[in-house]
Design goal:
By secondary structure, the chain is mainly alpha-helical. Helix content is 83%, strand content 0%. The longest helix is centred in the middle third of the chain and has 58 residues. The radius of gyration is 30 Å and the shape is rod-shaped.
Length: 70
Amino acid sequence: MPKTMCTNGNCADKKSGVVKGILGGLAAGVAVSAVGVVMMNNSKKTLQKKAGKVADAMEDLFDSAKDMFQ
């Protein structure tokens, strides 16, 4: 593929615009993935708390059932 010649003198501007676009896209991707990681950690902690509460409730239920049948 032949290269086009720069006739109006703004070829460097076009190249830097592409580089800025690529860097901007990379920065946006990093930001989105960081937000995703934070949200996943928060939801994991929430699920662990809920699982702990369910386990405590099941243990209480088992203990009360055991007391009833003694």
